């Protein structure tokens, strides 16, 4: 049954499960779900109570912004209750752990952040190890995302320690909601992050309810493999036309079959007459994942095999042109009727080639 995001948030809060893993395509509503859940927890927290939830999503990253009006590149931190809470609750030596976590995730122990006294500004420099002047730099967007995640991860680690040792600072935390941490990481570091996260969650899950949402199938599956021996729940977030949603429970015995969900999204667009240019990205991704799944060297080799079996003559060029953002026609989201027909024909051919059967 479809529901509003606020209702799904209430369902998650009422559910006795301690760990919830949610997969959703970008634009489906997972970030809005995290915000609805945050608001729900905050509305149930009295003024006199300590913080009950910590959360990470794209809005968390928006708290950090560069000041381009001054000579020294400076990353500003917008002061709000969450940032004030972090600044007040972390000891100074614990803030040093943020730096170490950041350097570990970017695999560079020279690039060093430096906070000002009130935790409102950060400068970055390469530590030279000698008396040379430190050159202040503006870090890349990927490094910035890693830095912001390192702050959040340090807090998570302190929540874990608070339950291992006699430290009451973080024991008021009852909920953690993490939405798509650090999408800029390469696969090796993303796996490392997922495993780091899983280690912490396994320790705190008896005391804290954890919800993780992501659009990244690798991140999702690493967490699945880490949690599969534990009592956890995993879902697929489905969005409907009436701005309602459903959390569709998934089988815990198997990892996430991303190509199956890509197929479902494309087929849904075909049925609804809503094929857009971005569905070519889905189609290319479907071919890539399916080629890997079936043991082909690449998606073009799979496409050739599909042509040979089904008697079609699908051209890789059409998919290349429509799935690469570098082309000037990218801003046109609507597809021509001929392109729509090509997508429909190719999806039918993929189903025929893979002997796909729709189970009810």
What does this structure look like?
The chain is an alpha/beta fold and 360 residues long. The protein folds into 2 domains: 5-249, Rossmann fold (3-Layer(aba) Sandwich), CATH 3.40.50; 258-354, no CATH class. It is built from 13 helices and 11 strands. It has a 6-stranded mixed beta sheet with strand order 2-8-9-1-10-11, with helices on both faces. Strands 3, 4, 5, 6 and 7 form a 5-stranded antiparallel beta sheet that branches. α5 (92-106) crosses α6 (141-164), α9 packs antiparallel against α10 and α11 (299-310) packs across α13 (337-354). The longest helix has 24 residues, at 141-164. The chain is globular, with a radius of gyration of 23 Å. The model is unreliable at 325-332 (pLDDT under 50).
Rg from alpha-carbon coordinates: 23 Å
- Which structural class best describes the helix and strand composition? alpha/beta
**How much beta, percentage-wise?**
5-15%
Known CATH architecture of the largest domain = 3-Layer(aba) Sandwich
Helical content stands at 40-55%
Overall residue-averaged pLDDT value: 86
CATH class wording of the largest domain: Alpha Beta
Order of helices and strands: HEHEHEEHHEEEHEHEHEEHHHHH
Strand order within the widest beta sheet: 2-8-9-1-10-11
Per DSSP, the total helix count is 13
Structurally, how many domains make up the residues? 2
**How many strand units?**
11
Ranges with pLDDT <50 over ≥5 residues? 325-332
- Biggest sheet, open or closed, and with what strands and sense? 6 strands, mixed
């Amino acid at each position: 049954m479809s529901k509003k995001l606020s209702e799904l948030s209430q369902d998650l809060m009422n559910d006795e499960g301690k760990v919830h893993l949610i997969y959703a395509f970008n634009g489906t509503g997972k970030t809005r779900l995290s915000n609805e859940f945050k608001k729900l927890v905050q509305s149930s927290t009295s003024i006199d109570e300590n913080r009950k939830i910590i959360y990470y999503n794209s809005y968390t990253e928006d708290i950090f912004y560069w000041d381009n009006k001054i000579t020294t590149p400076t990353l500003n931190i917008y002061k709000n209750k969450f940032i004030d809470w972090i600044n007040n609750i972390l000891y100074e030596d614990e803030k040093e752990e943020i730096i170490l976590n950041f350097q570990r995730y970017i695999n560079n122990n020279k690039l060093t952040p430096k906070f000002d006294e009130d935790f409102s500004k950060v400068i970055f420099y390469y530590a030279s190890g000698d008396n040379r002047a430190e050159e202040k730099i503006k870090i890349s967007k990927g490094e910035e995302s890693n830095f912001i995640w390192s702050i959040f991860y340090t807090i998570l680690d302190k929540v874990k320690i608070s339950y291992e040792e006699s430290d009451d600072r973080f024991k008021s935390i009852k909920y953690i909601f993490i939405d798509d941490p650090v999408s800029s990481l390469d696969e090796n570091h993303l796996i490392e992050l997922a495993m780091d996260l899983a280690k912490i969650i396994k320790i705190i899950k008896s005391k804290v309810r954890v919800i993780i949402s992501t659009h990244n199938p690798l991140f999702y599956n690493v967490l699945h493999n880490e949690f599969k021996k534990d009592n956890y729940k995993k879902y697929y977030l489905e969005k409907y036309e009436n701005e309602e949603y459903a959390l569709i429970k998934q089988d815990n015995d198997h990892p996430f079959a991303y190509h199956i969900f890509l197929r479902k999204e494309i087929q849904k667009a075909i049925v609804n007459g809503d094929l857009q240019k971005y569905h070519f990205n889905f189609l290319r991704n479907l071919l890539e994942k399916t080629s890997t799944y079936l043991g082909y060297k690449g998606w073009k080799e799979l496409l050739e095999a599909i042509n040979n079996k089904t008697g079609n003559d699908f051209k890789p060029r059409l998919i290349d042109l429509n799935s690469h953002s570098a082309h000037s026609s990218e801003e046109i989201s609507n597809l021509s009727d001929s392109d729509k027909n090509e997508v429909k024909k190719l999806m039918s051919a993929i189903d025929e080639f893979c002997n796909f059967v729709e189970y009810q």
